[in-house]
Amino acid sequence: MSDSEPELEARLVAEESFDPPASFTEQANVADPALYDGFDAEWPECWEQAADLLDWEASYDTVLDDSQPPFFEWFTGGSLNASTNCLDRHLDDRGEEAAIEWVGEPTDEANETYTYAELHREVNEFAAALRGLGVEEDDVVTMYMPMLPELPVAMLACARIGAPHSVVFAGFSADALATRMEAADSEYLVTCDGYYRRGDALDHFEKAADGLDAVAHDVTTVVVDRLGADDHGHDLSDDHHDYDTLVADHAGATVDPVARDAEDMLFLMYTSGTTGQPKGVKHTTGGYLSWVSWTSQAVLDVKPEDTYFCSADIGWITGHSYIVYGPLALGTTTMLYEGAPDYPARDRLWEIVERYDATQLYTAPTAIRAFMKWGTEHVDAHDLSSLRLLGTVGEPINPRAWNWYYEHVGDGECPVVDTWWQTETGGMMVTTLPGVSRMKPGAAGRPLPGVDAQVVGPNGESVEPGQAGYLTVQKPWPGMLRTLYQNDERYVEEYWAEFSDTDSDDPDDWVYFPEDGAKVDEDGYITVLGRVDDVINVSGHRLGTMEIESAIVGCEGVAEAAVVGGDHEVKGEAVYAYVITEDGQPESDAFREEIVGAVEDAIGPIARPESVQFTPELPKTRSGKIMRRLLEDVANDDDLGDTSTLRNPEIVQEL
Ligand code: WT7
């Protein structure tokens, strides 16, 4: 485990549970409970069902190659192209149907619909343009863009030419962009001039340009013009390529999709871990695409005629898997909303659901808690009867928020799927099957059919129902990450070392550890208790304490810092910083602001500390490790428990 002992508080699971509504089950993509046993009996061949959802250029010879654990390979020998699967194969039946419905934030602006034919055309044109700029197969192309339709266009254009993409969340700072571009040796960037957020035209290009200044190698940059006349007057003509011009220059171009091996990288996604450097999670073409397609169909019940709405940002894995790849692979209509859920008013999301007759809504508990706080009148003002299924992801959902979602948004007629998964898992792992399973608010559900997730004790032994332990995955799955980019060693260390016999070449001796605590009940339902490493989950976004601490320690006048997650009513967790100043440094509000600013510069506004507390010392164990648990208790105003193992117990009073 991490240096701090895991703290696994019991989380409430509601007494009341719910059967899936009969009206839902009648039409569900998956309605047969026998799937669970069937998949166990057929494992790993059961996953051919997922691969069969795709069109393969060459079919695979082997479902699972487990000869070199933990470097598992799926559908080897097969080849396919992700953009063909998301576009070309739908043209005959769905060419004139909407692939993307894009809603910009300003209400006085026209929304945009991309039919499958239109999306296919623009992806081809931009793929040709990227080639023209020199992008070759296996070159990593970085995207630093908010929720604009050009983002999925660029992702699919990369997929078409076999160039992996690395999307950096637009809310991340210039420094964060630079770190990720350097780590991936990425020589291409697609970005934009700006975007709208709560009515303001944000200057995004300035951040991108600052990031580029910090990258040591040359970068070819494409800029999407989002703001038109509202832009910030940057002169882009010399160094950068204008997206619209490039696409116009390649009007009507077609690019033959490159056949990629199933195991070829589709994309990289950087995510936070315990140590400083973000981890470049590598996902593949065959396994990942099979996984997100199968889970979109089985769990989100996606059908081609749906209008599916996921309110996540494409800059995170949820958006990759369940706005872009899963929904488009299944040929449905996927919604993209640019702005804030409370702009211009607190009913914006419901207004969109009503206007587009959205059939599914997939969002985060933090959003649900905010909606709750804003009051039911905003939901009640809209006809949401088009909704058939509700989903949540990103953090544990408390039963009160679950019930609110179920009742006020779903009117008691939509199943709620609480989906546990991670950037690394590629797609959903633990959740109910909405047409099959009883729902227990607060518990995610059983592992999906074919997924061997188990809760274990510190030595890997199984634990009694109700007992807190560690979540593990005991068998590989097609959507799993394959490694950390150019760092196989760290891959083994971070995800496998804890519970595996790392000397063994027997795949059964290898256990994946997602670094979450969990408990399981008599029915096999798993309640995820949260991270047991030094990762904070703010509004469903993962932040490494080390990254934040090193930003703070980088401020002149700071001697030492520790950052922990404290409970927060809406965000789930918030960042609490404890700072020791150097002699002579005034502990002023101005200095606090400077520290907050340094964190924003290093990572982005999402990592903004909620509180910065100055302290003469940090609570440390006798071996000199910071006792984070104690700082968390301080942040939460909790009982501090046993402090006798501290080297400096007197500091506790002071804090
Ligand atoms: C971490 C992964 C999954 C895409 C968005 C976040 C937490 C995620 C749940 C859930 C309880 C959850 C875990 C996990 N988490 N979903 N339904 N219930 N916790 O992806 O940034 O990779 O974060 O989010 O702690 O490890 P991520």
Question: Overview of this structure, please?
Answer:
- By secondary structure, the protein is α/β, with parallel strands linked by helices.
- Helices cover 29% and strands 21% of the residues.
- The chain contains 21 helices and 29 strands.
- The protein has a seven-stranded mixed beta sheet with strand order 5-4-17-16-18-19-20, sandwiched between helices.
- Helix 6 crosses helix 7 and helix 6 packs across helix 10 (243-249).
- The chain is globular, with a radius of gyration of 24 Å.
- The two termini are 27 Å apart.
- It binds 5'-O-[(S)-butoxy(hydroxy)phosphoryl]adenosine.
List the helices and strands and how they pair.
Layout: H1 22-27, H2 34-42, H3 48-51, E1 62-65, E2 73-76, E3 79-80, H4 82-86, H5 91-94, E4 98-103, E5 112-115, H6 116-132, E6 141-144, H7 150-161, E7 165-167, H8 174-183, E8 188-192, E9 194-197, E10 200-203, H9 204-213, E11 220-224, E12 241-242, H10 243-249, E13 260-261, E14 265-271, E15 279-284, H11 286-298, E16 307-310, H12 317-329, E17 333-337, H13 348-356, E18 360-363, H14 365-374, H15 377-380, E19 389-393, H16 399-409, E20 416-419, E21 453-456, E22 469-473, H17 488-495, E23 516-520, E24 526-531, E25 535-538, E26 541-544, H18 545-553, E27 558-568, E28 572-581, H19 589-602, E29 611-614, H20 628-636, H21 650-654
Parallel strand pairs: 4-17, 6-7, 6-8, 7-14, 8-11, 11-12, 16-17, 16-18, 18-19, 19-20, 28-29
Antiparallel strand pairs: 1-2, 3-13, 4-5, 9-10, 14-15, 21-22, 22-23, 23-24, 25-26, 27-28
Helix pairs in contact: 6-7, 6-10, 8-9, 11-12, 14-16, 18-19
The structure holds 5'-O-[(S)-butoxy(hydroxy)phosphoryl]adenosine.
5'-O-[(S)-butoxy(hydroxy)phosphoryl]adenosine binds next to helix 12, strand 20 and strand 24.
